[in-house]
Design goal:
Structural class: alpha+beta
Strand order of the largest sheet: 11-12-8-7-1-2-3-6-4-19
Number of strands: 19
Distance between the termini: 24 Å
Radius of gyration: 25 Å
Largest sheet: 10 strands, mixed
Helix content: 25-40%
Oligomer: single chain
Number of helices: 12
Number of domains: 2
């Protein structure tokens, strides 16, 4: 394969529920070689696992299907490759559903690759029995302490299995729990032939992936510094990484779209969800975010270069979720005059009633929206507000206690302070709490599986 001078990798989704128009804009408004879409978060995996347990044909991001249906004609016409982790816990079923879409559209010869093997939920007892304890990275506790409440367990695979699917001719690649950054790095590995020892280049791809992974957040969305002057956010252009074989990256967006790509928007995104900036650990490499250099290269174009990387660790990260009791959230709205004082009194009354009934909670959290929901105890003292929303949340392992909270909130309408509304949603009901369990597993204990199928 003749090496391309550069490739353009476009971000289409930053999370499940992101702007549904964005993928079509990315494939229709300018040159795009690859469209990458991130659908998964830690809690998403347990939701998808529940769906799959109810129906073996589910377990993937169903929103992906409508996106594929919309973009598939252009993807085929322009030979754009699509990479997404929207396969969730069932990428094979997602593949089959997309094949059905392709058949209805009259598309022939489409190759879809799936990367799986990350879902180790069914192997947990085997792994524990072999001495792999899957300890919690934060507490050091053994997974055995929550084994009976476990809902999902997925290994974060990286970019090389995706690159292998591309090498086998896949035009669409569906993965399970791949790293967000790996979706963007994979096309560079495939197109430029980067190997596992080229750590600086791999780190550059990881940095590019981190910039793209949150969609419009790096092209003017959620931008703090100068948000008032970001143009035309209604038609925001999602970011594009223009990548070169020497690992130079330019971040840009399609001409004529809204939003803003600047050194400052990229800086804000680079700081997002970062622990030690010198050691951003991925399956392929440890990237040094302190080495990144940025410079403006024109309107809505930023050069990202001189990135350094180190050899990876011997572990994959494992994302697990388990049931940890129940929660309920409810709101009431109090109006002027004395809106805040009324809301505070209502909270005090409800807490006292629940205490009188003998109920206790692991957490009992109150916010006064319009006053302290953003800044908590740092909120300034105020004498008058037009209205305040009382928002209360409780959590605990006692279902009856959580249920009682809901039964005590709504009666405040007629048995508490005056000028109250906002109870049309009815009584809040107990919901399952899904807790996160991060762990590590040796790379020798799991293996990604790559499978490419043609329609």
């Amino acid at each position: 394969m003749r090496q391309k001078e550069f490739i353009r990798i476009a971000s289409g989704q930053g999370y499940w529920g992101d702007l549904p128009q964005a993928p079509y804009w990315q494939v229709s408004k300018g040159q795009t070689d690859y469209l990458v879409m991130d659908y998964l978060a830690e809690v998403t995996m347990s939701i998808l696992q529940k769906q799959k347990s109810r129906d073996p044909k589910l377990g993937y991001a169903k929103d992906l299907l409508s996106v594929i249906e919309k973009i598939l004609p252009l993807v085929v016409e322009k030979n754009i490759k699509v990479i997404t982790n929207g396969g969730g816990v069932n990428p094979q079923a997602c593949r089959d559903a997309i094949f059905e879409i392709a058949k209805k559209a009259g598309v022939k010869g489409l190759k879809i690759g799936v990367v799986y093997g990350d879902d180790i939920y069914g192997r947990i007892d085997e792994l524990l029995g072999s001495g792999i304890d899957l300890k919690n990275m934060d507490t050091g506790d053994s997974l055995r302490t929550v084994r009976d409440r476990l809902q999902s367990a997925n290994v974060y695979f990286g970019a090389f299995p995706i690159a292998e699917a591309l090498r086998q001719g896949a035009q669409i690649v569906l993965t399970g729990r791949a790293t967000d950054t790996g979706l963007t790095l994979a096309p560079m590995i495939y197109e430029f032939g980067w190997n596992e020892q080229e750590f600086d280049k791999l780190a550059a791809g990881i940095i590019a992936g981190h910039i793209l992974e949150c969609g419009g957040q790096s092209s003017g969305g959620n931008y703090l510094k100068d948000w008032k002057n970001v143009p035309d956010l209604a038609n925001i252009g999602f970011p594009i990484a223009e990548a070169y074989p020497d690992a130079t990256i330019y971040i840009t967006k399609h001409n004529g779209t809204g939003g803003l790509v600047s050194v400052d928007t990229i800086k804000e995104q680079l700081l997002y969800e970062i622990g030690d900036p010198r050691e951003y650990i991925t399956p392929e490499v440890i990237a040094d975010f302190t080495s990144v250099k940025l410079e403006s290269a024109g309107d809505n174009r930023v050069k990202v270069f001189d990135i350094k990387g180190k050899p990876p660790t011997e572990f994959y990260k494992v994302s697990m979720a388990y049931s940890d009791g129940y929660y309920a959230i409810g709101t009431l709205t109090y109006g002027w005059p004395d809106a805040l004082e009324k809301a505070q009194a209502a909270d005090k009354i409800m807490r006292q009633r629940l205490k009188n009934l003998g109920f206790e909670y692991d957490e009992f959290h109150t916010e006064f929206l319009g006053y302290n929901s953003c800044h908590g105890p740092l909120s300034p003292v105020t004498s008058e507000l037009n209205e305040v929303v009382l928002r209360v949340a409780v959590r605990g392992n006692d279902h009856d206690a959580v249920d009682a909270f809901g039964r005590q909130l709504v009666p405040l309408v007629l048995t508490g302070p005056p000028t109250v509304t906002g109870f049309g949603g009815g009584r809040p009901k107990p919901q399952d709490v899904v807790a996160y369990w991060p762990s590590l597993i040796s790379k020798t204990a799991v293996k990604p599986i790559v499978e490419v199928t043609q329609i």
